[in-house]
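can u do me a favor
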């Protein structure tokens, strides 16, 4: 690795600590959809909202993108965001421990969903801030590598926590009333640490009325998409991939529960096993991203999710399995784990920092805002569409639709890479 540039070493240490704490939180949230279905007895469509909220909030970037650029005290904003968006999770401690409370009323379902909607709103501030903080403090050469090291540490912690949490839930369905409040507290701590990363002072921009800010935000986003053709192609591919991912991810949670009849430990295993490979591949993937075009890198990522979608669908025809220490292991899902490991190692880089490779350091926040806004846009309809396809046509048709969009996404990126080099 080349020598650190000013602030790079300190940024790496702070961001890695942040990533480690977030690994604990993500390890708990990895089982969230399954908790909602099995412990809270929520419906499939309500569960799709849980995932939808995590993405649809990014539509808000259309309205606050310009406002975010004008914030002088980014540290204070991150800390306020931490308190406002993480505190509601602490209230889940008071949820009842009896099934009747969830079977005969939907009150707790909506309180649960509302708490996470507020939690996910924090991403409007956090995600663009991370992208910009790292882009201005890391050199271009080290950007992908350093980010991958932090991401690897994050996944190690996430893997351990998810497995332990799955065991806890198998013993007590209501363990979420302890672990989710703990995650809320840790979320405040992690964002406090993130806020300590140096943020360069910006030239003051005259304040304008809300509608003017929205107009400026829309104009800037449109200019980026219109004039940066390579980035536009990249995002078209991402839209196609994103629709595929969003219609399948909610269906996978339902299929694990209804189709494969997995317990919490088994779900934790399948959510974790691929992370072992991802952890090993992340540093390699980070180095590759720093040396090849993101569109070519995206084609690798989309090919891996295409494979894991196919392997998961094959359980319909090849349902052979064996139970080991309470974990139901389907033979064909071993290939699903391998493909998912490649996907996890590459997508964490592509989604979080891929947009930054198409722009100058000072534009990274704006480009990531465009990327996240488009993510939110497709989340308006894709997750619920997945549940509809599954309940109407079944798993095979749903996964076939998802696979078709992935093939298109790969084609767009490869065409753009060779046509616009």
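np, heres the sequence
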């Amino acid at each position: 690795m080349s020598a650190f540039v000013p602030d790079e070493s300190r940024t790496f240490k702070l961001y890695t600590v942040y990533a480690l704490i977030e690994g604990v939180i993500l390890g708990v949230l990895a089982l969230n959809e399954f908790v909602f279905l099995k412990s809270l007895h929520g419906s499939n469509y309500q569960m799709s909202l849980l995932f939808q909220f995590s993405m649809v909030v990014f539509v808000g970037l259309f309205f606050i993108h310009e406002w975010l650029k004008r914030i002088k005290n980014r540290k204070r904003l991150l800390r306020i965001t931490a308190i406002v968006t993480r505190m509601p999770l602490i209230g889940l401690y008071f949820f009842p421990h009896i099934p009747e409370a969830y079977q005969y009323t939907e009150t707790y379902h909506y309180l649960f969903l509302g708490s996470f909607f507020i939690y996910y709103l924090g991403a409007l501030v956090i995600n663009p801030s991370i992208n910009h903080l790292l882009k201005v403090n890391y050199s271009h050469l080290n950007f992908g590598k350093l980010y991958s090291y932090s991401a690897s540490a994050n996944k190690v912690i996430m893997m351990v926590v998810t497995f332990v949490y799955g065991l806890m839930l198998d013993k007590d369905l209501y363990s979420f009333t302890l672990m989710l409040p703990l995650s809320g507290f840790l979320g405040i701590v992690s964002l406090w640490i993130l806020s300590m990363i140096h943020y360069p002072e910006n030239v003051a921009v005259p304040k304008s009325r809300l509608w003017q800010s929205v107009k400026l935000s829309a104009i800037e986003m449109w200019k980026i998409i219109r004039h940066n053709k390579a980035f536009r192609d990249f995002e078209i591919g991402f839209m196609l991939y994103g629709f595929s991912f969003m219609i399948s991810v909610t269906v996978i949670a339902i299929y694990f529960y209804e189709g494969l009849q997995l317990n919490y430990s088994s779900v934790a295993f399948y959510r974790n096993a691929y992370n072992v490979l991802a952890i090993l591949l992340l540093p390699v993937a980070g180095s590759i991203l720093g040396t090849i075009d993101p569109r070519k890198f995206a084609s690798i990522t989309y090919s891996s999710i295409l494979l894991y979608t196919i392997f998961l669908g094959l359980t319909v025809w090849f349902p052979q399995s064996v139970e080991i220490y309470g974990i139901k292991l389907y033979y064909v899902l071993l290939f699903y784990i391998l493909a998912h490991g490649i996907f996890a190692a590459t997508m964490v880089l592509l989604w979080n920092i891929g947009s930054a490779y198409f722009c100058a350091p000072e534009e990274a926040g704006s480009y990531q805002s465009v990327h996240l806004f488009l993510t939110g846009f497709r989340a308006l309809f894709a997750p619920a569409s997945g549940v509809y396809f599954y309940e109407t046509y079944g798993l095979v048709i749903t996964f076939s639709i998802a696979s078709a969009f992935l093939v298109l996404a790969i084609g767009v990126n490869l065409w753009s890479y060779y046509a616009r080099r």
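The chain has one domain: 8-198+211-419. hope that helps!!
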